[in-house]
Structure formats: structure tokens, C-alpha cells
Design goal:
The complex is a heterodimer. Chain A is of the alpha/beta class. Chain A has 17 helices and 12 strands. Helix content of chain A is 37%, strand content 10%. Chain A has a 7-stranded mixed sheet with strand order 1-7-6-5-4-2-3, with helices on both faces. In chain A, helix 3 runs antiparallel to helix 12, helix 5 packs parallel to helix 12 and helix 6 runs parallel beside helix 7. Chain A is globular, with a radius of gyration of 26 Å. The two termini of chain A are 45 Å apart. The chains are: A alpha/beta, B alpha+beta.
Chain lengths: 496, 127
């Protein structure tokens, strides 16, 4: 592959506002007309806009071509392999989309009386029960709209419990492999973060954890398996020690995809966890969202959950607010369309199917790790879970080819880069998560591409260093993009 | 090479005592290399207090956000405001124009616990 074969159509094209004929007015005035009862000025004094809005002057064909072109230059898991570690970019079965669009769900209104929405409430109760079964924690709120939102909600419940006991506490312990959202959550909840180092096997350093634990610690936030893709072998010692000092163990459920039907966070001794439905339960991800981050908790924390939660009683399904609820964390009932998709995924997979998902995810990751460990450095030599971390340290030392360059070069082969430079404790980290949905042929192709790039890094290091060559835009100036952030389009036509 | 005229902290900070007896603090060349291109430095406020071993700010690069650890204890007398507009100065001149804060130390004995240039070179060699 060389840089000489760029397609002419990959040049930067105009934005939709720059398309069409400005003289050809198809938008009308854009001004809301007066109603028969009252003029706009009477209804909204002083709010009447003085000039029409600056809408694109484009035909339907212009619009269709514009968005078709954007779709063609986009990259998603439906386009190619997307081994973005920690993000679980699995394929989302279309069945889930069909189910959530059934008219009985799609046509619901959130203000409908409970008696008229018993079907969807039963579905939400079923999802609650499934998440309780899968996580081993007895209570759940489906309210939070994303993983970090679920984290924040869980920590608010923990804070509410400590406050109620007149024991506010100030610190939250987080290992150095944590997701960046964990310390952010801690700050938002008004706590201080204390970082705990990892041991040589990639788990939490027990001695350091014990030394940090005291009666000022509100909670410990852990991801298990952690962001190195490793299961913490001391997890029960950890949660026991945390409980002994009156603190709570919170599990970042980002990596639940690796353990479904095999082990349960509740059984490991965790008191709370959030579930990323968009990772583990195949609902739309990233820009395709919205997300959902239900939070599951122990009996002790259940009274603090945000409401409403669904309960089943003699009069059918009802929406109730838990006794000492921290209040709402979102309008209405969470992202119900996403919750429906997750439930469809759980039911269509079945219990055995969910276990098979995790087994396959772990097998795929271990297969890649075993085949790539000679071409790249492997900092933690252990059987991994659903993801693993390689290091480009050897390539960097020999020929100054960095993890970033390897990621960029993968783009030329039609593969999305893995997560790079995370977790922070691994130098030149390449964090790879194939997910269970990639077939063996695709895993084998990834291996041969990664081998080819390792070979290029040695024989012709400028090739990866200047990659990519075949994408819509070449290597971006990431430092300039961060320093001079400018996302707003402004018209060059001052008369507009 | 790391200059000999200053002290080094294990979290990759340096301290140099200037002519006014103030502790000038920055990050090491090794640290800026590891971080890559720096895009933002969160500076403490003048008058705030730094505590040795505690976080006093953040430095953000295209790769990551890292915390800045205070090598000494004392009150901030000046921050390098150039870094607000030109954070890349830390990359270009980590030991010069890329300094981060100046601190009036409350206890200079903490300097004894810091490393010399030679000790720091060994320290990063081991990492």
C-alpha cells in the first residue's frame, strides 16, 4: 500500500452550509407566522426574530448525497474491525433495533398513566431482574444515561449513606489502572482521590491498599477485570478489607463483558457497580447513542437509589421512588429505547448465550495475545480476560516508532486503531479488545496486519511514522487541534 | 542531560533555588518526553500553598492528563503565565522558560530528601 493511490473523492468537501445556491431560496422566511388567535409579538414580546435563520439552501438530492458521502467516509464496527480496548466495540444485532421500534414501544409517551404502559414496565422489571441476576447485586436503578453517569450515581448513593450515618468521610481510593472517569466522579462528589499502585502481576498492590484504608475512606473504586484486561486475584481480600473499615467497594462495570455468567461482582464482595449497556449488552455506542448506565447496589445501598424504579405489586407494575432516594438523576425513566434493546439482547442470547459471549470474548483476546506477543512487548505475562495490553516500547527504542504511529498505520489496512497510551502505567500502550463478535478470519487478518506493521517499523520506519496514507485526511496535528480548538463554522458571507 | 544546579523529585519534578531564595519548580526533560506534546498546564493560584508530595496542578498532553506533584512545601509567589498561551514551552525548555511555579519554602530541609542530577538519572534509568 502506498500514498499514491488516494481517491479524488477523499479531498475535503464543503459543509452542508457551503452547498447549494444561495440565490435559490427554498427556505421561505423561516419566521414563525402569527397564529389566528394572537400575533407572535403578543405571545412573546420582544422575541420576534428580525432576520430569517441561516439555513442551508440545498435540494433533497444535495442533502442525500451529502449524508451518503459522510456515511461512506465514516468508520464503524459495521465497516471493519474496531479493537478499541476498554470500549467493547462489538457488533449490535439488528434484532435489537427491530424490537425497540415496535409501535407499542416507539409510540409511548412518558406522561401516559401507569395503567396504560404495563407492557413496557414489565419489560423494564424484566431487565432489572436480569441485571440483578447477572451482577449478583440485589437492587438496580435503570435511570443513569451513561457509564460515567452510573458511576456518579453509585458514588452519590454511597455518599448519602455515609452522610445519613453522620460519618461523611473524605477520601476515595482508586488504583492506577482506573478509567479516567473514576477520579472525575470522585471530584464531582466532593471527595479526594488517593491513587493506589499496581503490583507486578497487574492487580492492586494489597499492602498499599491496606496502608491507605482507614475510617476516612468512603469508597474504593475498582474495575475488575481491570484496564490491563486482568482479573484481580485478590479481589475478595480487597473487598473484605474495605468493608472492615466501613467503606464501600464500587466496581466500574465497564468490563462486565468478560465475566457474564461466570463470576458476579456481588459475589466478589462489591457493594455497587454500574453496567454499560452499550458495551456489554450490545446497544448503540459512541455517537450512535444515547447510552445507558444502570447502577446495581447491595441491600444496604438500595434505599438511596435514584427513582423511579419498577416494582411489581398486586395492582401490576408501578413506578416507585426508593425510601431515601438521592432523587432523580435523569428525566422520566432513563433511555427506555436503549433499555429495550439491552433486554432484547439478553433474552435472545439467554443465560447460556451470555456466558458464551464472555467465553468467546476472552478466548479471542487470548488468541491475539498469544500470536502477537513475539512481535510486540507484553508487559504482563498472564492469561488475559477480554482485552490485553501490548507495548510498542521495543519499536520506539529501536526506530522511534510509537504506539500512535502503529495505530495510524492500522487505518491504512482498514482497521480501527486500538486504544493507545492507556492505561497510563504501560509505556507506549496498545490496548486491544477484539470482542466476541469478530470471526476467526478477522482475528487472523488483524494478526497478519500487526505483524506486517512490526516488520515495517523495523525495515522502513518512515512508513508507519507518516501513516495514514489512504484516509480522508492524513496525519492530523493533534497538539494544534487541542491548543487551538475551533469547532464552530462561521459564514464567510457577511450578508447572510 | 539534567542540569546539576537543582534538585529532583521521584515524580519527575525539579526544584532550583533562585537568587531570591525562592524555589523554582518545573518538570524534567524525561517527563516532557514521556508526556509528548503538551497542550495545557493547569497552574495553581498565586498565594496558594503547595505541600511536598501532594498534587498541585495538572499537565495535559495529546496522550494523557498527568498530575503535578509538589517537591517542596510553601506558598506560591509566582506562576509562569506564559504557559497559559504557550504550554509547549514546557516541551521546548523544561529546565528554562518552561518552569511552572515559584514557591517561598516554609522549610528547606525537605530539599535533603530530593535527588541529585546523578541520582535522578539512575532513577529514570530504572523505570
Amino acid at each position: 500500500m502506498t500514498g499514491e493511490h488516494r481517491h479524488a473523492d477523499t479531498d475535503c468537501r464543503p459543509l452542508i452550509f457551503e452547498l447549494g445556491d444561495p440565490e435559490w431560496s427554498c427556505t421561505g422566511t423561516g419566521v414563525v407566522p402569527d397564529s389566528e388567535e394572537a400575533s407572535i409579538e403578543e405571545l412573546f414580546p420582544g422575541m420576534h426574530r428580525e432576520c430569517p435563520p441561516n439555513l442551508p439552501n440545498v435540494s433533497e438530492l444535495d442533502i442525500m448525497r451529502h449524508y451518503s458521502r459522510l456515511a461512506a467516509v465514516n468508520f464503524g464496527v459495521d465497516t471493519g474491525m474496531y479493537p478499541l480496548g476498554s470500549c467493547t466495540m462489538k457488533y449490535n444485532p439488528r434484532l435489537n433495533e427491530d424490537v425497540c421500534r415496535l409501535p407499542g414501544f416507539a409510540g409511548l409517551h412518558p406522561y401516559q398513566p401507569e395503567a396504560t404502559v404495563q407492557g413496557v414496565l414489565e419489560l423494564l422489571a424484566g431487565l432489572q431482574a436480569a441485571l440483578i441476576e447477572i451482577t449478583g447485586l440485589p437492587a438496580v436503578s435503570l435511570q443513569p444515561s451513561a457509564g460515567a453517569h452510573g458511576e456518579h450515581t453509585a458514588l452519590l448513593c454511597i455518599r448519602a449513606h455515609h452522610a445519613r450515618n453522620g460519618d461523611p468521610r473524605r477520601r476515595v481510593l482508586i488504583p492506577d489502572t482506573a478509567h479516567g472517569t473514576n477520579p472525575a466522579t470522585v471530584s464531582l462528589c466532593g471527595y479526594e482521590t488517593q491513587t493506589i499502585p499496581s503490583d507486578a502481576s497487574g492487580g492492586v498492590e494489597l499492602a498499599a491498599l491496606r496502608a491507605a484504608l482507614d475510617e476516612d475512606v468512603a469508597a474504593v473504586m475498582l474495575t475488575n477485570p481491570n484496564t490491563l484486561g486482568l482479573f484481580d486475584l485478590n479481589i475478595q481480600e480487597i473487598t473484605t478489607a474495605v468493608r472492615a473499615c466501613g467503606a464501600f467497594s464500587y466496581c466500574d462495570g465497564a468490563n462486565l463483558n468478560a465475566i457474564m455468567g461466570i463470576s458476579r461482582p456481588g459475589d466478589m464482595g462489591f457493594d455497587a457497580l454500574h453496567v454499560n449497556l452499550h458495551k456489554t449488552f450490545a446497544t448503540p455506542h459512541g455517537g450512535g447513542g444515547p447510552g445507558a448506565g444502570p447502577v446495581c447496589v447491595s441491600e444496604q445501598l438500595a434505599p438511596y437509589l435514584p427513582g423511579p424504579v419498577v416494582q411489581c405489586g398486586p395492582d401490576g407494575f408501578t413506578l416507585v421512588k426508593p425510601a431515601d432516594s438521592i432523587g432523580r438523576v435523569r428525566s422520566f425513566y432513563g433511555n427506555v429505547g436503549v433499555l429495550i434493546r439491552a433486554y432484547a439482547y439478553i433474552l435472545s442470547s439467554g443465560g447460556d448465550g451470555l456466558r458464551a459471549v464472555s467465553e468467546q470474548a476472552v478466548l479471542s483476546a487470548n488468541y491475539l495475545m498469544a500470536r502477537l506477543r513475539n512481535a510486540y512487548a507484553l508487559p504482563y505475562e498472564r492469561t488475559c480476560m477480554h482485552e490485553f495490553v501490548l507495548s510498542a516500547s521495543r519499536q520506539k527504542k529501536a526506530n522511534a516508532v510509537r504506539a500512535l504511529d502503529i495505530g495510524k498505520r492500522l487505518l491504512d489496512y482498514g482497521i480501527h486503531p486500538p486504544t493507545v497510551y492507556f492505561p497510563l502505567l504501560v509505556e507506549e500502550a496498545l490496548m486491544i479488545e477484539p470482542t466476541e463478535t469478530e470471526p476467526l478470519s478477522s482475528l487472523d487478518r488483524f494478526i497478519s496486519v500487526m505483524m506486517a506493521i512490526a516488520e515495517e517499523a523495523e525495515s522502513d520506519p518512515d512508513v508507519p511514522k507518516n501513516a495514514p496514507y489512504t484516509t480522508v485526511v492524513r496525519r492530523l496535528d493533534e497538539a494544534r487541534a487541542a491548543r487551538e480548538l475551533d469547532l464552530r463554522w462561521t459564514s464567510s458571507d457577511t450578508t447572510a | 542531560m539534567n542540569p546539576d544546579d537543582r534538585y529532583y523529585h521521584s515524580e519527575h519534578e525539579w526544584v532550583k533555588i533562585d537568587d531570591d531564595g525562592l524555589a523554582v519548580i518545573g518538570i524534567t526533560d524525561f517527563a516532557q518526553q514521556q508526556l509528548g506534546e503538551i497542550v495545557f498546564v493547569e497552574l495553581p493560584e498565586v498565594g496558594s500553598t503547595l505541600t511536598a508530595g501532594q498534587v498541585y496542578g495538572e499537565v495535559e498532553s495529546v496522550k494523557s492528563v498527568s498530575e503535578l506533584y509538589a517537591p517542596v512545601t510553601g506558598q506560591v509567589t509566582q506562576v509562569n503565565s506564559i504557559l497559559s498561551d504557550f504550554p509547549e514551552t514546557v516541551n521546548a525548555e523544561p529546565y528554562g522558560e518552561g518552569w511552572i511555579v515559584k514557591v517561598r519554602m516554609s522549610d528547606t530541609r525537605v530539599l535533603d530528601s530530593l535527588m541529585t542530577s546523578a541520582q535522578y538519572s539512575t532513577h529514570i534509568g530504572e523505570e
